[in-house]
Amino acid sequence: MLGKLSRWLRMMGHDVNYFRSLEDKKLVEIANQEKRILLTRDRELVQQATRLGVESALIEATQEADKLAFLAKRFGFKLEIDLRISRCPKCNAKLEAVAKEEVADEIPEATSHYYSEFWKCMGCGKVYWQGAHWKKIEKTLEKAQSRLSQL
Fold first, then answer.
1. Which of 49, 116, 123, 144 is most open to solvent, judged by the fewest CB atoms within 10 Å of its CB?
2. How many CB atoms neighbour CB 16 within 10 A?
């Protein structure tokens, strides 16, 4: 239920586990064992986690900018993407800057023509660059920052 949020947090450098379908008891157990904060939209799950001493946060917002602003306020992190610490939005592994020549056969030819900075996931091997979608990412973060100042 918070898959998109997990991808945002990973891009911002946070180590995030995400499970699509796992029993509540198992989620709380994993969060406890790994000393993680449990994020959920399920009020009962937050109550269960709290009873067992696991830190959790109930995510009530529906817009990504609002979710990010809430978490930034609650946990005191910056609403920015620092590509030196970003993680793969898909698998959570660390990204590493790579030379264009290293990934030339893994990216579209036009991308190679227009962009010069690339990052590769050390886990799944996916290659990233600041393409046309980057403006949308920046706009969402700006919106989150604006919302944060209102909280």
1. 116
2. 20
DSSP β-ladder status, 38-40 and 56-58: parallel
Q: Whole-prediction pTM value? A: 0.94
Q: Quick one: tokens of 14?
A: 């946070």
Buried b (16+ CB within 10 A) or exposed e, 30-61: ebeeeebebbbebeebbebbeeeebebbebee
Sign of CA dihedral 38, 121, 143, 78: positive
Q: How far is CA 69 from CA 4, 118, 134, in A?
A: 15, 28, 19
| Residue/partner pairs of 133-141 with CB below 8 Å, 24 or more apart | 137/11, 137/81, 140/8, 140/64, 140/65, 140/68, 141/65, 141/68, 141/79, 141/80, 141/81
Q: What tens digit of pLDDT does each residue of 75-88 get?
A: 999 999 999 999 99
Q: How far apart, in whole angstroms, are the C-alpha atoms of residue 25 and residue 110?
A: 48
pLDDT digits (tens, 9 = 90+) for 125-147: 999 999 999 999 999 999 999 99
Domain ranges, ordered by start, for the chain: 3-150
